[in-house]
Design brief:
Distance between the termini of chain B: 47 Å
Structural class of chain B: alpha+beta
Number of helices of chain B: 20
Helix content of chain B: 55-70%
Largest sheet of chain B: 5 strands, antiparallel
Radius of gyration of chain A: 27 Å
Order of helices and strands of chain A: HEEHEHEHEEH
Strand order of the largest sheet of chain A: 1-4-3-2-5-6
CATH superfamily of the domain at 59-191 in chain A: Glutaredoxin
Shape of chain A: elongated
Oligomer: heterodimer
Number of helices of chain A: 5
Chain lengths: 192, 660
C-alpha cells in the first residue's frame, strides 16, 4: 500500500432536483397502494374459471340421495358446492344453501369431499339436505381437478357445463345478493 | 377491570405522546430548556403506560378473560400457559400493541441513555418519535382496540391458530418488531438532524448503536421465522419469497446499507445526505411492511385479520411520516454539510457501491412483491411472482455484494489504487475460481459453482485481512495473538458478521442447488428411496398432547443398505380449531438434513410421505445467527459504551476495520 493515492477530483454536487426523486417515487408507490386497497387480491385466484367442468365420477353418499354425475350439470345453470361433514364453516354456510334450494332459484349440487358415506349422510340428515344431487369425493380426485383449496367452495356452472365463477369460503347473504344471484340471472339470460 | 385499566393506559399514552411530540419541538424552537426536558419524561411515561396496557392484555390472556373480544377469539382455557402469554401478540390487535410498546421502549431508551445528546437535538428526536407514537396509538385505539369487551362473554374461547403454538413463533414477532420498529430511532434522529440542519461525526456515533441493535434483532427475527417455517409448515422450504417475508427482508437489506453508510459518516463524515436518506427509507420500508401485512393488499400465507380501513389509516401514516420526511429531505438536504471528497476507489467508494447494490436488491424484492398489485391496478389481471424471478434477479446481486465484501476491507479510506488494494486478493481470486469450477463440474450446477466460488473468495479475503492485520508470518505468533487481542470489539464484530454471511451463502447455495425430494404413498413396512437413503415406514402410533392429538409415524432410515437410526414425524390435530399442524421429522446434520413429512391423502390404509435431502440447510440459520452475533459483539465496542462521556478519538483510518 505504498503507492501514492490518486489525486481527488472535486466531487460534483448532484443537481438540486435529484433531492426530489425519493419523495416523487414514494408518491407514485402510495398512489398504487391506495388503488390496491380498492382491489381484492383473493377475487379470482382460480385457473378453473371459464373452463369446462372436468369429467368426474363420484360414489353415492346414500341410497336416498341421488348421486351427482356430469350430465346433471348440463342444460341449466347450477351451483356445485364442495362440503364435508368435518368442515366447520360448512355448517355456517348451510342455512343459506337451504334457503337457495327451497326458493328454487337455482339447483344446488353437492360434492362431499374427504368424507365417508356414513358421516356425510348423517351430516345431511342432521342439518337437512339442500342438494338436488350429491356425491362422495373421498379420495379428492374431483377436488384436485377443481383446484379446491378448502371447504366450503362453490362453483357456478353455466348451462353448457362451464365453470363461470368460484366462491372460496362460505356464501354469505351479501355474496349471494351482490355477486352470485346477479351472475345467475345473467347466465340464465345467456342460456335462453 | 384489567381491560378497562389497559384501555385507560392506552388513552393516557396517546395524550402523553401528543405532549411529547409538540411541547419539546416548540421548546427546541424557542430554546427553552424546561420545555425541551418534557420530552424525556414524556417518553418514559409513554413507555410505562404502554407497558401497563400490554401487561393488562397478557393478564387477560393468562386468566382467560373471555369477556375481551381478542381473548375470546384467540384463546381457550386448555392452552398451555406459555402460549396464553404469547398469544397476547399472536393476533392483530395485540401485535400492534407490542409494536407501539417497542416504539416507546426505543423512545424511552433514548430519553434515558441519551444524556450526551445536545438538548435541542434530543428534544427534536424524541418529539419525532412521539409523533410516530401518536399515529400508531391512535391507530390502535380507533381501528384495532384490543380491549373491546363482549356484552355476553362466552364460557370458552374460540381457540388459537395452532401453527402459532410453537416456541419459535412466540419469539419471532417480538424480535422482528424490535428490529424494524427500532429503525424508527434512526428515522427520528435523521428528521431531527434535517430540522437542525447539522450532522457531524457525533451524530453518526449516536445513531449507529441504535441502527446496529435494531439490525441485530431484525436478523434474529428473520432467521427464527425462516427456521420456524422450515420445521413447522412441513413444506420442506426455508424461504418462500412470500410478501410478508419480503416485508421484513426489505428493511433488513436497506438497514444493512444504512449500517455501513453510517460508518462512513462516523469515520469520514462523508455520505451524510445519503445516510439521512437511507434512515428515512429504512423506516419507510418498515411502515410499508406493516401496511402490507395489515391491509391485505396482497395474498400471503400469513393470515392476519385484514381490514381495508386499517390499510387506509396506515397509508395516511406513510404519507405523513415518510412523505413528510422525504419532503423535508428535499428541502433541507443541501443545508446539511457534506464531508470531505473521496475518490471512486476508496473505502467510502466501496461502501457506497455496496450500498447501491443493496438498494438494487431491495428494489428487486420490492418490485417482485408488489408486481401483482401493480398489474392488478393497471390491467386487472391476477398474476403472481414466484421464486424463479427472485432467484434470477436477486442471486447475482448478492454475488456482487459478496465480491465487494471481500475487497472492501482492503481499500484505504479517501483514495486508493485499485491495483494495490486488490493485490492481496490475486491468489485467493484464482483459488476461488478454481473452487467454483470444481463445484460446478462435480455438482452439475453452475449457480452452485458461482455461490461456492464467491463464498470461498470472501472467506479467504477475511482470512487474509486478519493475517495482514495481525502480521501473521512476519512477526512471532505471540505478537500476532497480542495484536488480535487488541482488536476493538467492532473489528471482531465485522469479522463475525461477514463470516456469518459466508456461512449463510454456503447454506443457501447448497440448499438451492442440490436439494432433492421423493414422494410416495406408503403403507406400514413399505419404503421410499432417496439417493443412498431408504426410509421404511416402521409403525404409527397416536399420542396425546396437552391440547392436541398427534399421529406419529416412525421411519427406519437405511443408508446404503445398513440401518441408520430412525426418524419420527408427527401431525397434530387441534380439536378446538379443527385443524392440523405438521411437526416435520428432521434429522439435522452439519452437511445435510434428512426431512420427512406426511399428509393423509384421503386414501385409507396409508400415508402420502415426502422425504427430502437438504444439503447444508443448517448453515442458513447458523449463518443468520452468526451475523446477528457479530452485530452484538460490535455493539459492546468501547466506542459505543463510552461515546459521549468524553470526546471519542476517531481512530486513524488504517486502524479502522469496519463494523457490520
Amino acid at each position: 500500500m505504498s503507492e501514492a493515492p490518486q489525486p481527488l477530483a472535486a466531487r460534483q454536487a448532484l443537481p438540486r432536483w435529484t433531492a426530489l426523486i425519493p419523495v416523487g417515487l414514494l408518491t407514485i408507490i402510495l398512489v398504487f397502494f391506495a388503488k390496491g386497497l380498492t382491489l381484492d387480491p383473493h377475487a379470482l385466484p382460480t385457473m378453473m374459471v371459464d373452463r369446462p367442468m372436468p369429467a368426474f365420477e363420484l360414489q353415492p353418499i346414500s341410497d336416498e340421495i341421488p348421486n351427482l354425475s356430469p350430465d346433471k350439470l348440463r342444460g341449466r345453470v347450477t351451483l356445485v358446492n364442495v362440503f364435508g361433514s368435518w368442515c366447520v364453516s360448512c355448517v355456517a354456510e348451510h342455512p343459506i344453501l337451504m334457503d337457495i334450494s327451497r326458493a328454487g332459484i337455482v339447483e344446488v349440487h353437492g360434492v362431499d369431499w374427504r368424507d365417508t358415506p356414513r358421516d356425510g349422510s348423517a351430516w345431511l340428515a342432521r342439518y337437512g339436505n339442500p342438494y338436488s344431487s350429491a356425491g362422495l369425493d373421498a379420495d379428492s380426485r374431483l377436488a384436485i381437478d377443481l383446484g379446491v383449496t378448502g371447504a366450503p367452495e362453490t362453483f357456478l356452472v353455466d348451462a353448457n357445463g362451464r365453470i363461470r365463477y368460484k366462491q372460496i369460503g362460505p356464501i354469505t347473504p351479501e355474496i349471494w345478493d351482490d355477486t352470485l344471484l346477479p351472475m345467475i340471472r345473467l347466465l340464465e339470460q345467456e342460456a335462453t | 377491570m384489567t381491560g378497562e385499566i389497559g384501555l385507560f393506559c392506552l388513552i393516557l399514552a396517546l395524550i402523553t405522546s401528543v405532549v411529547q411530540s409538540t411541547i419539546p419541538m416548540w421548546g427546541a424552537y424557542v430554546r427553552n430548556v424546561r420545555l425541551m426536558s418534557v420530552a424525556s419524561s414524556a417518553a418514559v411515561a409513554q413507555f410505562v403506560l404502554l407497558a401497563l396496557a400490554f401487561a393488562c392484555l397478557i393478564l387477560a390472556f393468562v386468566r382467560s378473560d373471555f369477556s375481551l373480544q381478542v381473548v375470546a377469539a384467540n384463546s381457550y382455557t386448555l392452552k398451555p400457559l406459555f402460549y396464553k402469554v404469547s398469544s397476547a401478540w399472536g393476533q392483530h390487535e395485540g401485535s400492534m400493541l407490542l409494536w407501539v410498546l417497542i416504539l416507546a421502549l426505543f423512545g424511552a431508551a433514548v430519553a434515558v441513555f441519551g444524556n450526551n445528546l445536545p438538548a435541542t437535538f434530543k428534544a427534536r428526536t424524541l418529539a419525532v418519535q412521539g409523533m410516530i407514537g401518536v399515529a400508531f396509538i391512535a391507530f390502535i385505539i380507533f381501528t384495532s382496540n384490543p380491549f373491546v369487551r363482549l356484552l355476553d362473554a362466552p364460557l370458552e374461547g374460540n381457540g388459537f391458530n395452532p401453527l402459532l403454538q410453537d416456541p419459535g413463533l412466540a419469539l419471532h414477532p417480538p424480535m422482528l418488531y424490535l428490529g424494524y420498529v427500532g429503525f424508527s430511532i434512526a428515522y427520528s434522529f435523521s428528521v431531527a438532524a434535517l430540522i437542525e440542519g447539522r450532522v457531524d461525526a457525533a451524530w453518526a456515533r449516536w445513531v449507529r448503536p441504535w441502527v446496529l441493535a435494531s439490525w441485530c434483532f431484525l436478523t434474529i427475527g428473520i432467521t427464527t421465522g425462516s427456521l420456524w417455517a422450515y420445521y413447522e409448515l412441513g413444506w420442506g422450504g426455508w424461504w418462500f419469497w412470500d410478501p410478508v417475508e419480503n416485508a421484513s427482508f426489505m428493511p433488513w437489506l436497506i438497514g444493512t446499507a444504512l449500517l455501513h453508510s453510517a460508518l462512513v459518516v462516523e469515520r469520514r463524515h462523508a455520505l451524510v445526505n445519503w445516510t439521512l436518506l437511507l434512515s428515512i427509507l429504512t423506516f419507510t420500508l418498515s411502515l410499508i411492511g406493516t401496511f402490507l401485512v395489515r391491509s391485505g393488499v396482497l395474498t400471503s400465507v400469513h393470515a392476519f385479520a385484514v381490514d381495508p380501513s386499517r390499510g387506509i389509516f396506515i397509508l395516511f401514516m406513510i404519507v405523513a411520516a415518510s412523505g413528510g420526511a422525504l419532503a423535508l429531505y428535499a428541502l433541507r438536504a443541501r443545508v446539511v454539510q457534506n464531508g470531505p471528497p473521496f475518490a471512486g476507489v476508496s473505502r467510502e467508494g466501496s461502501i457506497l457501491a455496496n450500498n447501491l447494490l443493496l438498494l438494487c436488491a431491495t428494489a428487486v424484492v420490492f418490485l417482485g412483491t408488489f408486481y401483482p398489485l401493480l398489474i392488478d391496478a393497471l390491467t386487472h389481471d391476477k398474476i403472481s411472482v414466484g421464486p424463479p424471478y427472485f432467484d434470477i434477479a436477486f442471486g447475482p446481486i448478492m454475488l456482487a455484494v459478496a465480491g465487494l465484501m471481500a475487497i472492501g476491507p482492503f481499500v484505504r479510506w479517501r483514495s486508493d489504487s485499485a491495483k494495490v488494494a486488490a493485490s492481496p486478493l490475486r491468489y485467493p481470486a484464482a483459488v476461488a475460481a478454481l473452487i467454483g469450477i470444481l463445484v460446478a463440474a462435480l455438482g452439475h450446477s453452475i449457480p452452485a459453482g458461482l455461490g461456492f466460488g464467491f463464498a470461498a473468495f470472501l472467506l479467504m479475503g477475511l482470512a487474509i485481512w486478519f493475517m495482514k492485520r495481525t502480521r501473521i508470518g512476519s512477526v512471532p505468533l505471540a505478537q500476532s495473538l497480542a495484536m488480535a487481542r487488541a482488536f476493538p470489539r467492532a473489528t471482531w464484530g465485522f469479522l463475525g458478521a461477514h463470516l456469518g454471511f459466508v456461512i449463510a451463502m454456503i447454506g443457501i447455495t447448497g440448499m438451492s442447488a442440490w436439494e432433492s425430494e421423493n414422494v410416495a404413498f406408503l403403507r406400514v413396512n413399505e419404503s421410499v428411496a432417496l439417493g443412498q437413503y431408504e426410509f421404511r415406514l416402521a409403525g404409527t402410533d397416536i399420542t396425546n398432547g396437552p391440547n392436541y392429538e398427534a399421529e406419529r409415524l416412525t421411519f427406519d432410515v437405511i443408508h446404503a443398505g445398513k440401518p441408520d437410526g430412525s426418524i419420527t414425524t408427527e401431525r397434530r390435530y387441534y380439536p378446538e380449531r379443527d385443524s392440523y399442524t405438521t411437526e416435520a421429522g428432521i434429522r439435522p446434520g452439519l452437511f445435510f438434513n434428512l426431512y420427512v413429512a406426511y399428509s393423509d391423502a384421503g386414501r385409507p390404509g396409508g400415508y402420502t410421505v415426502r422425504v427430502n435431502y437438504h444439503p447444508f440447510a443448517m448453515w442458513i440459520w447458523l449463518g443468520g445467527f452468526v451475523i446477528a452475533g457479530g452485530g452484538m459483539v460490535s455493539l459492546t465496542d468501547r466506542r459505543f459504551r463510552v461515546a459521549g462521556l468524553h470526546k471519542v478519538r476517531v481512530p486513524a483510518p488504517a486502524a479502522a476495520g469496519g463494523t457490520a
